[in-house]
Write a structure and sequence with these properties.
The protein has about 400 residues and is of the alpha/beta class. Helix content is about 60%, strand content about 5%. The chain folds into 3 domains: about 180 residues, P-loop containing nucleotide triphosphate hydrolases (Rossmann fold, 3-Layer(aba) Sandwich), CATH 3.40.50; about 40 residues; about 160 residues, no CATH class. Strands 2-3-4-1-5 form a 5-stranded parallel β-sheet, covered by helices on one side. The longest helix has about 40 residues. It binds zinc ion (ZN).
């Protein structure tokens, strides 16, 4: 299986990356042989992957990173780099290659300090003699200061350094940075393509895979979670009941509180899974005495960890709310399709009764306004409006009448 196999429904991007990996390989090979580099090259030092959530931006970047490190002997026989089997490909894909750094933050922003560390790392010559690859999965989370630090590195890269930045859209990245990157756009893969990969790669039963792919409208990670995680299914069921519960003000406020509580519950679960272990590890590293008493001068480090955990909790909560909002948007899109007799596939076939009820009880104009209310809530959250306030405003706007 080649490194590109997880890249679902992105034929054009895949071709471009494969061509660049081929040229990158030619550069490395000619250099090693003491020959002049090839004239034209599709390889470059900075790439920007954009596309809607779930389209596979990070997957594309990681596949490219692996192809750049491919050392398969087949390459000499005309084989493509990116075999998926050789040591270079394999270690890159599982995250242990010495020259591939994947930065995935669980925080809301990436600061100057973290970025400086990365830039320093990027200056190193690749230990394996090929490329030093830095994958920044959340380039949209760079603070402005961090962006400026990164800009310098992207402007004057070391000869064998490659930056792979991922962001939802071009607007999420500083103009000065994006103008120095080659830009690749990923699209939302088709429902069939997502169902296919769930069956092929994750061994999910075809019917369950098709239902999950449809319900999540081509978002691969969410589809997989929905098909395999009982909790995710319960969460979605709760969200899809919201439209039936917003008959009066009391119902609206209650539904809002429940959405917030569910997101908080998610964050708590993640915290329980990670925070305790992380704290224990740091305490041990700092030399805590028996009984947990900390040596002098370690309070700062402990405090820093606490801050970090708090920021991570906020992000988990936000991500969870975001998911709920996209489920709600999907619900009202289905309602609209029914009202307009559109011949599109219904995403939430499993709650058909609710869809029919709302569709018959309202008009397409009303449904459009409801979709707008959900989108407005997401925007408010992006602007850091207090979550409960934003969600209450939404449920009130969803109210019948
Ligand atoms: Zn390989």
């Amino acid at each position: 299986m080649a490194v590109w196999d997880d890249l679902v429904g992105q034929e054009r991007v895949r071709e471009q990356l494969a061509a660049a990996a081929r040229d990158a390989d030619a550069l490395v090979t000619s250099h090693a042989a003491g020959e002049a580099p090839p004239d034209a090259s599709k390889m470059t030092h900075a790439w920007l992957f954009t596309g809607p959530p779930g389209s596979g931006r990070a997957t594309a970047a990681r596949a490219f990173a692996a192809a750049l490190q491919c050392v398969s002997p087949d390459r000499a026989l005309g084989g493509e780099p990116g075999c998926g089997f050789c040591d270079g490909c394999h270690t890159s894909l599982v995250g242990t290659h010495a020259d591939v750094e994947v930065v995935r933050t669980d925080l809301l922003s990436i600061g100057v300090k973290e970025t400086r560390d990365l830039v320093r790392r990027a200056q190193l010559s690749p230990a394996g003699g090929r490329w030093q690859v830095i994958v920044l999965e959340d380039a949209d989370r760079l603070t402005e200061g961090a962006g400026n630090v990164l800009l310098k590195a992207v402007e004057e890269p070391a000869p064998r350094t490659v930056w792979l930045l991922c962001a939802p859209s071009l607007e999420d990245v500083l103009p000065t940075i994006r103008s120095r990157c080659r830009h690749l756009t990923l699209r939302t893969p088709s429902v069939d393509a997502v169902a296919d990969v769930l069956v092929r790669r994750d061994g999910i039963d075809p019917q369950a895979a098709a239902a999950a792919a449809r319900a999540t409208q081509g978002h691969i990670d969410h589809a997989r979670r929905l098909a395999t995680d009982e909790r995710a299914r319960a969460r979605r069921a709760t969200v899809l009941k919201v439209p039936l519960r917003v008959d009066d003000v009391g119902g609206c406020l209650k539904a809002a509180q429940e959405l917030i509580d569910a997101a908080g519950e998610d964050a708590k679960q993640v915290a329980e899974e990670i925070d305790v272990k992380e704290t224990e590890e740091l305490k041990a590293a700092l030399g805590a005495a028996q009984g947990g008493r900390m040596p002098r001068g370690t309070a700062g480090a402990m405090k820093e960890l606490e801050e970090r955990q708090k920021r991570r909790k906020t992000r988990t909560q936000r991500d969870s709310l975001d998911l709920a909002l996209s489920d709600l948007t999907g619900f009202y899109r289905d309602v609209l399709a029914l009202q307009l007799n559109a011949r599109t596939q219904i995403a939430n076939e499993d709650v058909r009764d609710s869809l029919d009820r709302i569709a018959h009880g309202s008009t397409p104009e009303r449904t459009l306004r409801r979709i707008e209310a959900v989108l407005a809530c997401r925007e408010a959250l992006d602007k850091n409006v207090a979550p409960l306030l934003a969600v209450e405003a939404m449920t009130m706007a969803l109210r019948a009448g």
